[in-house]
Amino acid sequence: MTPNDFIKVTRLKKACKMMVEGEYRVTEIGFLVGFSSSSYFAKCFQKQSGMLPTEFLKKIKEAPSSATK
Length: 69
What we know:
The protein is an all-alpha fold. It has helices at residues 3-21, 26-32, 38-49, 53-62, 64-67. The longest helix has 19 residues, at 3-21. The model has no long low-confidence stretch (mean pLDDT 91).
């Protein structure tokens, strides 16, 4: 894993934690963890997790314990 990939994965993990906490909207979370574009954040998130950030939020609301695994 390259240093850039490591940083990106770390940012995305932080974003997941922030989404679970539910304090910010998805676009705000993308900017807060260091992405300069909300579309690039969504693209990276989907590549890493297999779902869009909004799908992840739906999954959290449906079954909070299974979304964080």
